Amino acid sequence: MAESKNKKSDCFWGYFMIAPNMIGLGIFFFYPFFKNMYNSFYDIGAFNVTKWAGLSNYKKMISDTVMWQSLGNTFKYVLIIVPFTLVLSLLVAVLLNTKVKGQSVFRVLYFIPAITMTAAVAIVWRWLYNGDFGILNYILGLFGIPSRSWLSDPKIALFSISAVSIWMGVGYNMIILLAGIQGISGSYYEAASIDGAGPLKKFRHITLPLVTPTLFFVMTTSLISAFQTFDVIYMMINSNSIALNSTQSVVLYFYRNAFVFSKKGYASAIAMLLFVIIMLITALQMKLQKKWVNYG
Amino acid sequence: MKLRKIMVLFLCMSLLAAMSAGCGKSEPSNSDAAKEMAQTGETDTAGEVSQTGSSGKQVEIRYAIWDKNQEEYLQKAADEFMKLNPDIKITIEVTSWDEYWTKLEVAATGGSIADVFWMNGPNITKYARGGVLLPLDDFIANSDLDLSNYPASLVDLYTIDGSKYALPKDFDTIAVWYNKAIFDAAGVDYPSSDWTWEDMVEIAGRLTDTDKDVYGIASQYNSQEGSYNTIFANGGNVISEDKTKSGYDSEAAKKGIQCWIDLLEKGYSPSEASLEETPGYIQFESGKIAMLWGGSWRIKEFSQTEEIADVIDCVEVPALNGEKASVIHGLGNCIYANTKYPDEAGKWVEFLAGETANTIQAESGAAIPAYTPTVSIWAKSYSKYNAQAYLTAANDYSYAYPVSANTAEWQQYEADYLKVVFSLNMTVDEACDKLAAEMNKVLSAE
User: Fold this and answer.
1) How many structural domains compose chain A?
2) What is the rounded CA–CA span in Å between residue B108 and residue A102?
3) What are the tens digits of pLDDT across the range A12-50?
């Protein structure tokens, strides 16, 4: 009797404790998701004048070249940002796990970009990249490399933005990977040392396989965030830039449709497309992980 | 034990509080979230106002603007107004130009829009037909305002479907700024009001010195300060008079754009890319550009930029094929259709359109006042420049800023195509024909 009462009260406290998070999820994620799905079947113009549109928003998407271009840009971002972020953050994590002088200073330095506001980062990088007064062109000039318009040349602006995203992402992922690496038991390394394995061999045969669960987590999250790239582009590329069409991601195009062109219904349809793509890729990843993730 | 439970409860509460506070900062990734934010915003201010209202004190009128440069004089005007109307409190809200229209539309949708706000030509039809604006006809009829005191093109601009929705606040025209120091160094005479486009091209060539990183002129895609003027001077138009057809596929309009492209091809101007990263007026302020086509709203900032303030002057735009043209545009003050205080908002708008506020505006030099009896005061406040050039433009050769119902939509195509032309990646012919086709589609849907 006393026991069941205890269980009930435990249950209550359990739900109570997760309530803030669940309410937040409900209001800010689940409700908007279903509302978005609903909106995608309507024409919603300026000042929310709403009209039933059926599937016309989805049909329109098929012939919208700008939409497909921004989807292509998004894939480019993913293909550039994710591998570089993973390799670099793993490299930094491994290096910072060795006994270097000023280890904690380095850790802080690498983590700073992750806790700095994107807006501030973007403004600073805009100045570094500036074609006329930027320090990047100045430094390249010292080596005789001609100036470039890093952010307004449609051919390279996408890479310039990716570089900033990578720079911002490395610190955060590095910390997670570092935690994963430190969770590996020291006895493996000891045994390897006795067998005469060098640092490279240890990395290849001990660190890498045992850090795969963390690596998988980092890969999934950075993949999703790369698909949702928005803030860096929004802050670095002006809405009147010639490089806009060759740099805007799906999320930016969604934003411009919803809040600049007042086509909220169409924007919702774009968001649905992105949702489906991300879901498929994440599902694929979950499947593939069995092949390479080692849960020990 | 009890203490622990209380602690837990306290923690949960603070978590909840933190989350709801965080909502204001989050990116409005969904229209509903944004709407929600806007609505909570409204109840907040409403609560505040009704509180002060019930205690029989003040009514708050919120006034939304986008130009930080004009905040100072408007605050002065507001102080003056509040002296006359102690029961009304004017709160000025400045939002940067880049965000102003996005924010205004979201606020209008959610009902938290300011009581009185700035309006421009490209957006007036959308807002008037969207039911966001209060028609001002009765209000004007019952006031002491005489609309013949305002430039007719502005009064027309804000008359939609026969009703007036905004009172003109100021107007702007185009003139050419030049840096005398660069002219002196190259031994070139300053331009005079009777110069031609060919003179300008010739001067630009002589002043361009790429070794020193100095260019004769800035030729960037810019409709109001650039191609619109040359299109009109060439006898073309952007949009037909009955607003049903684009004018871009005409020879006259194409020539009006080609003349800017020639400057770029001759190398007399920094590239479109360079001008996009560092806008022409900033390059002009840093002495890298000798001549700049600039709207009258630039004058205040130029006069306050120490590096150039004393070595620059302005002159009327050059004649193209014997014709001069300057776009005229101006802002208007609007009242929100569902404002809680239409009478108080009306008083404020009437005051802004009146002589006192316009005199303050003219003296501050913030913008050319729309109340024409005061324009000479504005010119006097810039006695060291030939500010008269802007007023001559308004009187002698001004063309109304081209608008239709969905201006913003076709302006997007305009920018998309012409930017490619200005970055020299498409011919004027091809871009203009494609642009005209897109524009006609938008116009026929209106």
Assistant:
1) 1
2) 55
3) 999 999 999 999 999 999 999 999 999 999 998 888 888
